[in-house]
Design a protein that fits this description.
The protein is built from 7 helices and 3 strands. It has 151 residues and is mostly helical. The longest helix has 40 residues. The relative contact order is 0.11.
């Protein structure tokens, strides 16, 4: 995130299990509103990407004429979208994550499923990290060998 708005600085963990749950309710009516360009700049996204997320139901801005106005809950939803994309969730999985957040993570069955999804993604990412580390080591070895050659 590039950061210029007056939105609260919270981690994803805060949004899911900390103060973000309380802020969710306050963000529905209180707090600042952001224009699409503000969020695009803050998150390093294109306007088209934000409209795409809106079309998929992941963001629900208000309208003032033709202007989209995003509240703090939209800001939080966008943080969750970006987090979900970063860990490899599909848009459907991201939608479920947002739905759970909006419900306050109250359903034990859904919470258990979310926990299992996070465990699976963590395992997958740790495996990829090992593969990347191995590839980096191999590339360093190749570069070391190339450095010893003339030219």
């Amino acid at each position: 995130m590039r950061g210029q708005t007056n939105a609260p600085r919270m981690t994803i963990a805060d949004f899911l299990v900390g103060d973000g749950m309380k802020a969710k309710h306050e963000g529905e009516t209180n707090g600042p509103f952001f224009r699409i360009g503000d969020l695009a700049q803050e998150f390093g996204l294109t306007l088209r990407a934000l409209r795409f997320y809106e079309d998929k139901g992941l963001l629900r801005p208000r309208r003032a004429g033709v202007t989209r106005l995003y509240n703090l809950n939209d800001y939080a939803r966008l943080r969750l979208v970006i987090f979900g994309r970063r860990i490899g969730f599909t848009l459907g999985e991201i939608s479920e994550l947002i739905g759970l957040w909006e419900q306050g993570l109250a359903d034990p069955g859904q919470l258990s499923a979310l926990r299992q999804s996070f465990i699976a993604k963590l395992t997958e990412l740790e495996k990829k990290k090992v593969e990347i580390d191995d590839t980096i080591d191999e590339l360093r070895t190749v570069l070391g060998g190339l450095s010893s050659l003339p030219g």
